[in-house]
Write a structure and sequence with these properties.
The chain is α/β, with parallel strands linked by helices. Helices cover 42% and strands 13% of the residues. Strands 1-2-3-4-5-6-8-9 form an 8-stranded parallel beta barrel, surrounded by 6 helices. β8, α10 and β9 form a beta-alpha-beta unit. The chain is globular, with a radius of gyration of 20 Å. Bound molecules: flavin mononucleotide. The site of flavin mononucleotide (FMN) has 26 residues, from β9. The site of flavin mononucleotide has 26 residues, from β9.
Length: 369
Amino acid sequence: MRTEICDQLGIEYAIFAFTHCRDVVAAVSKAGGLGVLGAVGFTPDQLETELNWIDENIGGKPYGVDIVMPATSAGVDGADAESLYAQIQAMIPDAHRRFVDELMIKFDIPELPEGEQAGGVLGWAEGVARAHVDISFGHPIKLIANALGSPPKDIIDRAHAEGVKVAALAGKAQHAQRHVNNGVDIVIAQGSEAGGHTGEIGTMVLVPEIVDAVPGTPVLAAGGIGTGRQIAAGMALGAQGAWLGSLWLATTESSSSPEHLERYLEATSSDTVRSKCYTGKPARQLRSVWTDAWSDPEGPGPLGMPLQNILTAEANARIARSHRKDLQFIPVGQIVGQMNSVRPVRDVMFDLVNEYIEAVERLSAGLQG
Ligand SMILES: Cc1cc2nc3c(=O)[nH]c(=O)nc-3n(C[C@H](O)[C@H](O)[C@H](O)COP(=O)(O)O)c2cc1C
């Protein structure tokens, strides 16, 4: 499972782990893959703390950071989080506020305790994402990835000057070509099966399309990968490695809540939907009473990014506090159907590598005699 990209990044196996959890980052990198910390949910100060922890606990192994800078957002920007937040609040229609209030009453969700506030996720606002980038460059990262487009040119140039590889997710061949024209080094071809923000084209179709569209650029296969057989399939399609997100959510090191874990373990591959109800862009998650309410043709439907998340921030915090697992936002991909036990990252990595070897040997054996 060693490809060129492994040498470039100093890793043993071409397995990349997207995760919001620093313990998973450290465990994957120590097991020979590359842990990549998702920064979007952290304030800049929190990100600094997480990266300091990783530096102290990763045993000198390489790791990366993932930021979320949308190529387009609903016309808001600003230097600091507070003014951004105020701008966004002013753009939210009253009908949408009323709809959320009515859902809270309908589902009987208690108010937040006094003094507790929910600000929503601002990590995808350019000002905040830039602060994430500045902090990340203060640490020995080997890779910076962007979820929603190519990072701006100055960030790509800065990464290259610091010897850091730049990766970007792509859900279409045109996105991949644009990334490469913008100077991105690694394209993550993420198929529709994936958890979180995702497009419409399945991994099986997308990966070879992207590999052919960007000759000479390493491509990682993502979306629906949770076994060594699926990694082998991604490599057979022309990828240089696999980028996995959902699988790590059900590991011992993950910070997943007990309710989320319970739902991963019971869900089948039919239980996810793509919905705009959390961020305003389609994100794959477990279907819930909440996703159903937002897809109801009688309702107002979700707003764009970043309005929808700010609109629903307090509701989401109230739902999380209520521990109502039928209503919570639980992003995960279709591979959830194979997430049937909670295991340490080291064991998961061991199985992925071994199953990959078995699959490749089985296919090679078919060529002999
Ligand atoms: C809970 C969750 C949150 C995610 N958040 C991000 C994110 O902030 N940035 C990003 O680049 N990708 C994000 N992704 C997508 C992953 O990077 C990855 O492409 C995807 O999980 C791969 O498909 P899989 O879920 O089938 O493994 C997220 C995925 C999940 C499951």
